[in-house]
Amino acid sequence: MKKIFGFIAQLFLRPSVRIGLGVLVTGGFIAGALAWQGFNTAMDLTNKEEFCLNCHTMHDNLLPELQKTVHWSNRSGVRATCPDCHVPHNFTDKLARKMQASREVLAQFTGQIGTREKFKEHRIVLAQREWARFAANGSRECRSCHDYKDMDFNKMRPTSQVAMRNAAARDQSCMDCHKGIAHQLPDMKGARNPAFDTLVSSASGQSVSGGKDYFTVLPQDMFTDAGLKNKIGKLEVATKVKVLEVKGDAQLVELALWRKNKGYGRVWYSQFGLNITNAVFSKEVAQDKALVQVLAAKEDPVTGLEWQQVQAKVWIKKGGLIDSVEPIWTVARASYTQSCSVCHRQPQESHFDANAWPGLFGGMVGFTSMDTDTAQVVLKYLQSNSSDFSKTPHGADAADTSLQTARP
């Protein structure tokens, strides 16, 4: 046995003594060719839809969604498979994507996405990775089938023509507008705009003094007690409050807002006659005279409804206020500009009045990837900078005036 090990050691340490150079080169070439062929075979096997669907997470969650779309069944009979969209077609990027995919494989083996509930919980993370990849490569996989230069814009619907011609002129990534084209969109509540982290950090370090005005950086609960046990409603983002007292981890704040004298009067607004929501109370306390003080009342000449100027003192958790609304508007302005100019030129903030913006924005936000907090602050920003507050003549920008809506 000792002689055998010695022979093998000599074979590798001094190969030229035992084997000719030509044999070594030939053997190395054959070994390399076999290794390369094996590697390509493995790549091909893992690049088939059957391989993707072997994973029950993909088969049970994503396949049923894909089967309901035009990418699965259509009049032309051309079907996109998993690798067509999710695996780059050139070798270098394909190899890199295969290495990145090890994260999803590991998540499957460890059970991180092993059930429907866990998959839905982590779906936003998986989706954002793919959206980022498509954004970085200009949706290269999509455009292997859908290239701008091959499109006949005249055969599109008139509304589609405008968007697609503008997208082609900018050489825009398909995924900017077509998220959810083959699979359901994730629950955006699981997302978080990183810009809010700066606001939250500023609020946590904000020095608060009694008698001064501040603004909420995120929606937060309202309570009747300093122990924050009896919840009575919620304050919306960018709501102006006056701090009266700080007690432990709680702050007593005063609200001075408006509400419609209709029903329970649960929703409180920042301005008379304008539907800019600042607080929502539970119906049990909305009419509680011990909590709510009515300061004045007047009729809205447009709707004929009576509006009440109201005041209340509520407790909120400490650490959610800043002394200026401008940092909040900076986040909102950037989100509005970046998200709403993807498909078309967004209207100026002052192009519509405060009561028109909720309906218009609600119809647009579904085409963006805004999370709930971002969508709320953008809407509040648009309403607070609408034509009701602007010195610029209403509709003075170049936006489509056919969208102009009068205040109801």
Task: Summarize this structure as a short list of keywords or feature phrases.
Multiheme cytochrome fold, 10 strands, 4-stranded antiparallel β-sheet, elongated, 15 helices, 4 domains
Write structural notes for this entry.
With 408 residues, this protein is an alpha+beta fold. The chain folds into 4 domains: 2-36, no CATH class; 49-186, Multiheme cytochrome fold (Orthogonal Bundle), CATH 1.10.3820; 207-322, no CATH class; 326-403, Cytochrome Bc1 Complex, Chain D, domain 2, CATH 1.10.760. It has helices at residues 2-13, 15-18, 21-45, 49-53, 56-66, 82-86, 91-100, 102-109, 116-137, 158-170, 195-204, 283-286, 326-340, 357-365, 372-384, and strands spanning 213-216, 220-223, 231-235, 240-247, 250-260, 267-271, 274-281, 292-299, 306-317, 321-322. Strands 8-9-5-4-1-10 form a 6-stranded antiparallel beta sheet. A 4-stranded antiparallel beta sheet has the order 2-3-7-6. Helix 13 (326-340) packs across helix 15 (372-384) and helix 14 (357-365) packs antiparallel against helix 15 (372-384). Residues 394-408 have low confidence and may be disordered.
What would a concise description of this structure say?
It is elongated and about 100 Å long. With 408 residues, the chain is of the alpha+beta class.
Number of helices, where a helix is a run of at least 4 consecutive DSSP H or I residues: 15
Write down the overall mean pLDDT.
83
CATH fold assignment of the largest domain: Multiheme cytochrome fold
Distance between the termini: 97 Å
Percent of residues in helices comes to 40-55%
* Computed structural class: alpha+beta
In total, the number of domains comes to 4
Q: What string gives the helices and strands in order?
A: HHHHHHHHHHHEEEEEEEHEEEHHH
Shape: elongated
What amount of the residues lies in strands? 15-25%
Nearest-angstrom radius of gyration? Answer: 30 Å
Q: Low-confidence stretches at least 5 residues in length (pLDDT < 50)?
A: 394-408
Per DSSP E runs of 2 or more residues, the count of β-strands stands at 10
Major β-sheet strand ordering: 8-9-5-4-1-10
**Biggest beta-sheet profile:** 6 strands, antiparallel
CATH architecture of the largest domain: Orthogonal Bundle
The CATH class of the largest domain is identified as Mainly Alpha
